[in-house]
Amino acid sequence: MIPMEYYLIISMVMFFAGIYGFIARKNLLAILISLELILNSVEINFSVFNRYLYPEHLEGMFFSLFGIAVSAAETAVAIAIIINVYRIRQDIDVRHIDKMKN
pTM score, two decimals? Predict the structure, then answer.
């Protein structure tokens, strides 16, 4: 059996990589991928804590499935917005988004 600390270390690395990408990147798609890394690290934590603290219950797994569904819906909406921004501006750089104001 793999110790819980290994899963938590992987989740922590994913979370901080997502935070760094969210702050450092200027491309909307890179920011979206970083946000997905953050959400996936949280879902790993839900599953790991459920597995080790309450192995007979499935609440953490259900929260993870719900998080995956919300993440998929969020990604679909974000990509639709990014496509519309690209059609208008021909660029998906975050620094140029404020030029869409009237």
Answer: 0.83
